[in-house]
Amino acid sequence: MKGKVIRKSDFLIVGIAVIAALCLLYFQRAGDGHRIARVTVNSLLVEEIDLDTQTEKTVIKPDTEYDVVIVAENGEIYFESSSCRDKICVKTGHLSKKGDTAVCLPAKTVVSISGGEVDALTY
Questions:
Q1: 122, pLDDT greater than 70
Q2: What's the pLDDT tens digit per position in 15-46?
Q3: I need a labelling partner for 59 at 20 to 30 A (CA). Which of 19, 73, 107, 115 fits?
Q4: Domain ranges within the chain, ordered by starting residue
Q5: Residue 92 contacts by C-beta under 8 Å, 6 or more apart in sequence?
Q6: Residue 98: what pLDDT?
Q7: Which CATH architecture has domain 36-114?
Q8: What is the pLDDT of residue 30?
Q9: Residue 19 contacts by C-beta under 8 Å, 6 or more apart in sequence?
């Protein structure tokens, strides 16, 4: 019975896996950084908050047909409450990463996070 021998192809497979892991880490880090939360009603910008520099709790109550309360704190933004029937916007939870979006369709209100610049992750 022969012992196990490491072949050149084994090194190639391990090398490819290490390169893939490093690329994944690099692109995840590239997605971090300056985050801007935008609240729009009927496609009109109501509020814009820099989540990276925000230090205190901000409560936003846009003027809509429904009573909507949006809270930004600790680098996150979320629908705290809404008088709409389904409350899907509230169930979306806390948004903190670029590209995260929550929508209250009855109130025509959108909360989204993007960066200061357009990149492949937010485009």
A1: no
A2: 888 888 887 776 665 555 688 999 999 989 99
A3: 115
A4: 36-114
A5: 78, 79, 102
A6: 85
A7: Sandwich (2.60)
A8: 53
A9: none
